[in-house]
Amino acid sequence: MVTVSEHSGFCFGVRRALELVKKACDAGKQVAAFGPIIHNPQVVSALEKQGVRQLSLPEEVQQDDTLIIRTHGVEVEIAADLKRRAGEVVDATCPFVAKTHRLAKKLSEHSSLVVVGDAEHPEVRAAVSNARGEYFIVSSIDEARYLPYRDSYGVIAQTTQSETLFEQVLDALKTRCRLLRAENTICSATHKRVKAAVELAKKVDVMLVVGGNNSANTARLRCLCTAYCPKSYHIETEDGISADCFEAENIGITAGASTPIEHVNRVRDYILKRKNNGK
To answer: Where are the beta strands (DSSP E) in 35-131?
Structure first.
């Protein structure tokens, strides 16, 4: 049996971003994206074939460009530079991510800011660029335990972080400050996706997590599934499926938030075809 987890496929923020790109392309505009619009190489490659240029430096922006800001957002200084250079800027930052960035600014006005997340992730880099004062980025409970004592900490999370880690960090910080202000900025789509994937992982012999190798939320999803299904694999396409997967009786499939549902279905159909041909 091959079962696809509920809540697989694009999340709201990714779907919205791609709709904004399509709208600009359909209008005949010269479209460019600053950084990968989403963390899925296959989708980014498809956009490039449609004429969407992928930029990594503000200096690459042309005056006639309609520039798309990626779903993860960009640093405050870079956003200002892009607006000066491009003919038009379309902000495709996920609304949940944008809320996190606003809270980073608000909380840091009266507290030292703590962001629970990956320091190199663009969403986190954009968040801390909004900080008005001191900030720390932590990715583990141990890092939180050794933060310096402060009168007040304000805490937010990368939108695709683990709820468990967020709560653990809050517990650790209670002994590191007098006043703790926390905003749980983990998006509801992440919560639903994780819950459904974990429930499926408990019931199968092999778990496949489909998504870009550069997708942090896909990698995290695979780690969570491994706790319940040791044979959990992160793959980008059906080409990444190992031979032993086809010997399993029950196979589960889930996907990161930047993975099109058709990619998930293609993996499912490939497995079913291989199994049927083997009978």
So the answer is: 53-55, 66-69, 88-91, 112-116
Q: Do domains 12-93 and 96-186 have the same CATH topology?
A: no
Tell me the pLDDT tens digit for each residue of 173-193. 999 999 999 999 998 888 888
Residue numbers annotated as active site: 123
Distances (CA, A) of 274 to 4, 126, 236, 248, 253: 17, 44, 18, 12, 16
Q: What is the pLDDT of residues 194-203, one digit of tens each?
A: 889 899 999 9
Structure tokens at 271: 């497995």
A 10 A CB-CB count for 101 gives 24
Give the SS3 label for residue 96: helix
Whole-prediction pTM value? 0.85
Topology of the domain covering 96-186? Cobalt-precorrin-4 Transmethylase; domain 1 (3.40.1010)
List, in order, residues 6 or more apart from 90 with CB less than 8 Å away. Answer: 20, 24, 66, 67, 68, 69
User: 3-state DSSP call for residue 138?
Assistant: strand
Q: What is the pLDDT of residue 212?
A: 85
The confidence score (pLDDT) of residue 278 equals 59
pLDDT single digits (tens) 69-78: 999 999 999 9
Q: Other CB atoms closer than 10 Å to residue 196's CB: what's the count?
A: 16
For the domain spanning 2-7+189-277, the CATH number is 3.40.1010.20
